[in-house]
Amino acid sequence: MARTNPIQFIQQVRSEVSKVVWPSRREVMLTTVMVTILAALTAAFFSIVDLGIRSGLQAVLAMFS
Q1: CA separation for the pair 41, 15 (Å, rounded)
Q2: What global pTM score does this model have?
């Protein structure tokens, strides 16, 4: 792999960064809200599943106690 000097490297990095399409404030806010909502829904789902498994195991253990 060919080595480049630091000045060429910085120029190449700046060139690549200028090609990046940055999201708008609205897109960032929408994405943040969606991630927050989906994280809350996932947490609620796994909490309900956990409660179901816990109550099922307690019922099974109560039958054998």
Answers
A1: 41
A2: 0.66
What pLDDT band is residue 37 in, cutting at 50, 70 and 90? very high
Degrees to nearest 5, angle at CA 17 with 14 and 18:
85
Label each residue of 5-27 as H, E or C. CHHHHHHHHHHHHHCCCCCCHHH
Task: State the residue for tokens 């190449």.
Answer: 12
Residues 22-31 pLDDT 10s: 999 999 999 9
| Residue 14 and residue 6 in contact, taking contact as beta carbons nearer than 8 Å | no
How many helices (H) and strands (E) the chain has is answered by: 2, 0
CA distance 38 to 31: 10
